[in-house]
Amino acid sequence: MHTAHPFHFNLVAAAHATMIEHGFQPEFPVGTDTELAAIQAHPDIAAVPGTVDLRALLWSSIDNDTSKDLDQIEWAERLPDGRIRVLIGVADVDARVTRGTVIDGHARSETTSVYTGVKVFPMLPTELSEGITSLNEGEDRMALVVEFKVDEDGVVSEGKAFRALVHNRMQLAYPSVGAWLAGTGPAPPKVAASAELAAQLKLQDEAAQRMLDSRYQHGALDLETIETRPIMLAEEAVEIARLEKNRATSLIEEFMVAANGVIARIFDTSNVASIRRVVRTPKRWDRIVEVAAKLGGTLPATPDSKALNDFLLAQKQKDPDRFPDLSLAVVKLMGPGEYVLVKPDEVSPGHFGLAVQDYTHSTAPNRRFPDMVTQRLLKAWLARAQQPYSEGDLSAIAERCTEMENAARKVEREMQKRIAAVVLHPRIGQSFRAVVTGVNNYGTFVRTFDPHVEGMLVRGGKGLDVGDRLTVTLIATDPERGFIDFAV
Question: What is the DSSP letter of 279?
Answer without folding.
Answer: B
